[in-house]
Amino acid sequence: MTHMLPHANQTIAFIGGGNMARSLIGGLIANGWKADRIWVADHDAKQLESLNSKFPVHTSEDNDKVASVADVLVLAVKPQVLHAACQRLVNTVQSRKPLVVSIAAGVRQPDIATWLGGDIDVVRAMPNTPALVQSGATALFAPKGLSETRRAIAESIMRAVGLTLWVADEAQMDAVTALSGSGPAYIFLVIEAMEEAGVELGLSAETSRLLALQTAFGAAKMALESSETPATLRQRVTSPGGTTERALGVFEDAGLRALFERALTAARNRSQELADMLGRQ
């Protein structure tokens, strides 16, 4: 099912044509954004050639050329090169005054606005890798002064690859990074551990892998589609004195909840450190 995007007749330009940009472009086109209104800049000609083979969008190796036509400018480059990319776009952005959406992890909104010369509407977005299969979770932050129209545009762009939500305080983006940004790796680790345990219990590697993958998928789907909390769903499949109760007891005795809290806190703290480092460029 598609949903038409607000202001899909505007021109959207991507600085960076990597996997996340490609995923967004696919979602936008599927949801009604016209391909001839999409521009992509990347210094890698092969990257652009690959993009053109899949989508009838405009491409260029010249960032400034692409930015000069943008109503919405999506910054999709690596965090380490964002400062330099922004500095080269200052004149064009100041002249054009597009809505800027950054998906560069860890770079704070005020830093991006400053690097672009100030007085620019900048939305910071934190998607995660499942966006590559249109199942992402993206948190968005913008200053209070951003218009409802521009908020709607930014949200609709990121909604093309999954769930979106806004945070009121940018400091919460570090917690978002710890939970959903890094979160897929935690789930992959759990799947990996379940698979290995299944093999230790005598299952073939293929059988164990398929059962672990489908169980993780099915549990997430149930939780998403249910009005009940994960705690209630867990209790419902835990029969007193049964196998599930015995396994969950091992997890609880080992301090699984406290371990997750420590892990996410460590990730949050590292996110803060990296943002401080990137902001000092």
Explain what you see.
With 281 residues, this protein is of the alpha/beta class. It has 2 domains: 12-167, Rossmann fold; 181-271, ProC C-terminal domain-like fold (Orthogonal Bundle), CATH 1.10.3730.10. It is 55% helix and 12% strand. The chain has helices at 19-30, 45-54, 63-67, 79-96, 109-115, 148-159, 172-181, 183-200, 205-225, 230-236, 243-253, 256-279; strands at 12-15, 38-41, 58-60, 72-75, 99-102, 122-126, 136-141, 162-166. It has an 8-stranded mixed beta sheet with strand order 3-2-1-4-5-6-7-8, with helices on both faces. α7 (172-181) packs across α12 (256-279) and α8 crosses α9. It is elongated, with a radius of gyration of 21 Å. The N and C termini lie far apart (43 Å). The mean pLDDT is 95.
Quick structural overview:
The model has no long low-confidence stretch (mean pLDDT about 95). The protein is α/β, with parallel strands linked by helices. The chain folds into two domains: about 10-165, NAD(P)-binding Rossmann-like Domain (Rossmann fold); about 180-270, Orthogonal Bundle (ProC C-terminal domain-like fold).
